[in-house]
Design brief:
Length: 462
C-alpha cells in the first residue's frame, strides 16, 4: 500500500507544479474563479428530470463553496434535474454522518469525499462503484484524468473516486503582526529553532504567536509535528508499536505540540475555541501564524470582501497583509517538503448506479463536475489529476493566490497525510478530546499513541 501511495504522490507533484507554474496546455487559458461562465455544453436536457442527493465537503469555510453552488445551479438550469445539496464541513461529526448514512442504506447518490481509509468501509462493502465498472458502460467516464494520480483506494488499489482539486498544507502569515515584532516573513530555510524564537518575540509583544483551536481542529499541528520528526520517505509508516521508529516520531510530535502549549504560544482558549474563532484572531491582527490547507487561500480572500458573494468587493490592501510560506523544518525534513496530495474525489453510490432513472444522470453530473475547465476553476493554485493542465492567466488572481503559486514553485516534495491511514474512530485519543488531555498533561503522548494503536489493532481483528 505504501508503494502505491508514494507512486501516486510523485505524480501529484508533477500535477501540482503544472497548475502552479502555468505549464503545459492544449486547453487555452483559464481565468480565476468567478470570471467566466460555466461551460454546460456537455450537458443534455433531461426528458424525465430526477432529483440527485449530493454530499460534498464544499461547505463552511471551504474556499470553493461558491464555485460548487454556482456550478450546481448551472447544471440544474441546463438539465432540469434537481440537486439536493447535503454538503457539510469536513470535521469528525460530518464523517460520522456519512458513515452512518452508508450503514443505514441512506447514502447520497454522489459523494465528494476522502479516498483514504475514511472511505474503506463503503468500498469494502461494495457500496460505491469503481471507475473501471462505470467505464464498462460509459468508457468516457473520467477519461480526462491520469488514472495513476486519481487516488487509489487503500482497500484494493483501485480507483473509485474522481478528484477535482488537490491540497497542500502550509504556514499562513500575518505580515502586519510580524512587522510590528521586527520579524521577516519566513522563507524556504525556516527552521524550528527560528520559529520558536519568533514565537517568543511575538508573545512578548502581546500577540498570540499561533492561531489554532487544538480542542476542535488539532490535525494540522498533529500532522506537521509528526512529519517534522520523520522524513518524507517514512511519514506514511503507521506505527506497529509505540517504541518503533514511527511510534517514536508520533510521540515526539505530540511532545512538540505540548511544548508549544506550555510556552503559551497558542491562544488562551485554544482548547475550547472553534476554528472560526482562532482564524478571526489571525484576520484581526491578533495572531501571527496559522497552519491550514490550500482551501484557506480563498477563505481568507472571501473574508476580505465587503460582500462575500462578490469578488469585486475585495479589499486588496487588507488581503495583501497575508502571506503563505513553508512550515518550519526540523531534523530530517526540509521546510520545502510539504504535506499535500489528492485526498478527495467524486464517488457514485451503487444504489444510484442501479437506479435506472438516475444512472445516466449521476455519470453526467460527475463528468461535468470533473471536466478540464471545472477542475482548473476549483484547483487554481493547488494540484489536479488532469492529463493536460491548462495555462493560467496570473493577472486574474489575487495577491494571496499568487503568493501560493510562488510558494508551490519551491516545493521539493509532497507527502500525503498519515492521518488518512488511521481509521477515524482510532484517532480519538490523539484528536478530539485526546489533544486537550495531552497538552494539559492529563495523558502522556506515549499513552495517547498506545491507545490509538490498541484501537487500530482491535479494528483490524474484527
Amino acid at each position: 500500500m505504501k508503494k502505491k501511495v508514494v507512486s501516486a504522490l510523485l505524480s501529484t507533484v508533477m500535477a501540482a507544479t503544472m497548475i502552479a507554474g502555468s505549464a503545459s496546455a492544449g486547453m487555452g487559458t483559464v481565468e480565476a474563479a468567478g470570471t467566466e461562465e460555466f461551460d454546460t455544453s456537455m450537458l443534455t436536457k433531461a426528458e424525465n428530470p430526477v432529483e440527485l442527493n449530493v454530499t460534498t465537503t464544499f461547505a463552511g469555510e471551504d474556499g470553493n463553496v461558491k464555485n460548487f453552488q454556482d456550478a450546481v445551479k448551472a447544471y440544474e438550469e441546463a438539465t432540469g434535474n434537481t440537486i439536493n445539496d447535503m454538503s457539510g464541513t469536513a470535521n469528525e461529526a460530518f464523517k460520522a454522518r456519512v458513515s452512518a448514512d452508508f450503514q443505514t442504506g441512506s447514502e447520497s447518490d454522489v459523494l465528494f469525499y476522502f479516498n483514504g481509509v475514511d472511505s474503506n468501509e463503503f468500498v469494502e462493502a461494495g457500496k460505491v462503484m469503481s471507475i473501471d465498472e462505470i467505464r464498462e458502460k460509459y468508457p468516457e467516464y473520467a477519461s480526462n484524468m491520469d488514472d495513476g494520480r486519481m487516488g487509489a483506494s487503500p482497500v484494493d488499489g483501485k480507483n473509485y473516486s474522481v478528484p477535482v482539486n488537490g491540497y497542500w498544507e502550509a504556514l499562513f502569515v500575518n505580515t502586519t503582526v510580524l512587522a510590528d515584532c521586527g520579524i521577516d516573513v519566513p522563507g524556504p530555510d525556516y527552521t524550528w529553532e527560528q520559529f520558536l524564537a519568533d514565537c517568543e518575540t511575538i508573545k512578548e509583544k502581546g500577540y498570540s504567536p499561533i492561531a489554532a483551536a487544538l480542542g476542535s481542529v488539532p490535525h494540522y499541528w498533529w500532522e506537521y509535528s509528526i512529519f517534522n520528526n520523520d522524513t518524507p520517505e517514512t511519514h506514511l509508516n503507521v506505527p506497529e508499536t509505540v517504541d518503533d521508529e514511527a511510534g517514536k516520531a508520533w510521540v515526539a510530535g505530540l511532545n512538540d505540540i505540548k511544548d508549544l502549549y506550555d510556552k503559551g504560544y497558542f491562544p488562551e482558549n485554544t482548547l475550547s475555541a472553534l476554528d472560526e474563532e482562532t482564524i478571526q484572531l489571525f484576520m484581526e491582527d491578533k495572531a501571527a501564524f496559522l497552519v491550514d490547507g490550500s482551501w484557506r487561500v480563498n477563505g481568507l480572500a472571501t473574508n476580505c470582501q465587503s460582500d462575500p458573494e462578490d469578488p469585486s468587493t475585495l479589499d486588496t490592501e487588507r488581503l495583501d497583509k497575508f502571506a503563505v510560506t513553508y512550515f518550519p523544518a526540523k531534523d530530517g525534513r526540509k521546510a520545502t517538503d510539504v504535506l499535500g496530495g489528492l485526498s478527495e474525489g467524486y464517488f457514485i453510490s451503487r444504489n444510484a448506479w442501479e437506479d435506472e432513472e438516475k444512472q445516466a444522470a449521476v455519470v453526467e453530473f460527475v463528468n461535468y463536475m470533473t471536466s478540464d475547465a471545472m477542475v482548473a476553476r476549483f484547483a487554481q493554485h493547488t494540484a489536479s489529476a488532469l492529463k493536460a493542465a491548462p495555462d493560467v492567466d496570473k493577472s486574474q488572481f489575487n495577491s494571496l493566490q499568487l503568493k501560493s503559486m510562488e510558494m508551490m514553485a519551491g516545493v521539493t516534495s509532497f507527502t500525503a497525510v498519515v492521518q488518512d491511514l488511521v481509521p477515524q474512530d482510532c484517532r480519538t485519543p490523539m484528536f478530539d478530546t485526546g489533544m486537550p488531555a495531552i497538552v494539559s498533561g492529563d495523558v502522556t503522548p506515549e499513552d495517547a499513541v498506545q491507545q490509538s494503536l490498541d484501537l487500530m489493532a482491535e479494528k483490524a481483528a474484527q
